[in-house]
C-alpha cells in the first residue's frame, strides 16, 4: 500500500492539479456542468469548489430545460440551496416533472425571467407562484383546458401587470394571462389547439364566458404568432389580432405570423396592415401567404434596419423581392435571417408565365447576395431552383460569397452541376456500384473507405463541393428534395404515396454527400430525397470528419424498395460520439441487431425516431440498445409491425427503464394505423416539434426570439 501511495504522489507531482488553475479558468470549466450537478454534487468535493460552485456567474441563470436526469427531489433541493440567487430559470419542456414541483419556484424571490413552457401548471398553482415573484419581467407558460383566469389572485395580477415579455402556448381557446399583462412589449403566441376533442366533438374557436377582457398592446414592440394546422387556431388568433387592428402600437417593430395552409385575409386584418404601413417601421416581418399574394402590401410597408424576413410559401417573384423589399439593391447589411422556403418564383423576374421548373435568374440571386452580405441563416428549400449553363452564375457559386452563413437549407435539384443534370437519369439497371475489371453482386459493400478515395471520383470539381469548402463555419445544413413530403404529417393519416424527385435531382448522390464532410463545425444535418444514393459512402466521411454533429435526419435516400445505405450508415454511427438526436425515415427499414449494435456507439444519443412504411424491428435488439445507451430518453418508432408487437415492446421499455429515466418517452406504433393521430397528440411538444415531425427548421423564426 505504501508503494501505491508513493506512485500516486509521484503522478500528482508530475501531472497538473486541477485545483491549481485560476478561479477564472475553473469558473469557465464549471459553466459547462449542469447546475444540478454543481450544487448537489460537485460543490461537496472540496472547500474551493464549494465556494466556486455558488459563484453568481453560475447561479444567476439556471437551465433545466434539457437536463433529463433532473427529478422533483433535485429541483426541491436546488431551490432550497440557491433559490434566492437565481434570477433566470428555464424549465421549458420538463414534461416529466409533477405539477407540484412548481411550488418550489416560490423560493426564487428574485426571479426576473421564468420559462415554464411544457410544464404542468394549473391556474391556482400559477396564481400562488406569481404572487411571490414581484421582480418577474419575463414569463413563458402553457394554457391548457381547464385554465380559469378568474382564479388568479390580485397579487398574481399585480405581478403580471409588470411583465414585459410573455410567451404563451395555447392548447385551448383562451386569452390566457394576456389581459393581465398591461405592460407587454414582447408577445409570443403558439396556437396548438386541436379541431376535435378526444371524444370526437368539433371544437369552437370562441373564447369561454368571462374571457372578454381586452389585451393591452399599447407598448408592444414584438408580436409573434405560430399556428398549428386547424381552423380553430385561425379563429382564435383573429381575436388576438382584433385589438391590434383598432390601434396599432407606435413602437411595433416586429410583426410575425406563421400559418400553414390557407389563412384568408379579412377586413380587420387588412385594416391592421394598412395601419402598419402608415404608422410603423418594421425590423422583422412574416405574414401568411394569402396576405401577401397579389397585393401591393410590400410596396407600402416601411422598414428600418430589418434583421429577419420570411416569405415562406408566397408567390412573391424575384422582381418584386428586389424592388419592394431590397429596393433595387439597397444595402441590407442588417438582415441576418431570410426564409424563402416554398417561394417558388423568388429567384425569377416574374411569375405570371413562368413554370416552377424553369431556370432561375442568376442576377436576382446575385443582387440578393450583394445586398444581404451578412446573412447568417438562409432557407431556399421546397422549390425548384435550377441554374442555367452560364459559367460562374450557378446558385452554389453565388451563395459561396455569403461567408457568414451559419445555417442553410437548399433543394436537392439546386446543388447539381448543370452538365450532370442534363445527362440521362440513372435507371434501375445502373443503380449498382460499378468497378473496373470484375462483376459486382448487389448487396456487397463497395463504397470507398476514406475521403481520398472519394476525391478521385470527380467531386472536387463540382460547384457543391466548392460551396461546402467556402462555408467552413456552417453549423446547420438541410438538403431536401423539392417534392419531398414526410410520411407523418401533423394532424392527418400517414401518407402512403410520395411524389417522384425532380429530374434535375436524379444525379445527386454519394459524391455530394461526401462534399458535406468539409464542414468541420457541422452540428445539424438533414438529407431528404437524394435519389442517386448508391451505397451511402459519403455518410462515412461525414462521421469521420464532422465530429461536432449532434443532430442527424435522413429520409428517403436512394431506392425506395431497399435501404441501400445501411452498411455505410452503421459505419458512420460508430464515429458519431456527440450525436444526440437521430431521425430516420425510410421505407422497408430493418431496425435489427446490427443496426442497434452500431447505434450503441453513439454514447451521447438521447432521442431516436424511426419512421418506416413496411419497416421491421427486433424486440431483443431494441431492449439491448436501451439497456446499453443510458442517455436515451426518447424512443419513437412508427413501423410496419402489428399493433400487438408495438404495444408489447413499448410496455417492456417503459417497465424496464422508466424508474431510472424519469423523462423517458416511448411511442411505438404502426405507421399506417388509423389511430396514429390520437397517439401523436400525447407526445410532448418538445419532442414533437424538434424531431418527430419532419420540417425545415432553418430561419423558421427570428434568431434569439426567446432565451
From TrEMBL:
One of its GO terms (cellular component) is SCF ubiquitin ligase complex. Signal peptide: none annotated. InterPro entries: F-box-like_dom_sf (IPR036047), F-box_dom (IPR001810), FBXL18_F-box (IPR047948), FBXL18_LRR (IPR045627), LRR_dom_sf (IPR032675). It holds the Pfam family LRR_FBXL18. Residues 15-62 form the F-box domain. One of its GO terms (biological process) is SCF-dependent proteasomal ubiquitin-dependent protein catabolic process. PANTHER family: F-BOX AND LEUCINE-RICH REPEAT PROTEIN 18, F-BOX/TPR REPEAT PROTEIN POF3. This is FXL18 protein. It comes from Orthonyx spaldingii.
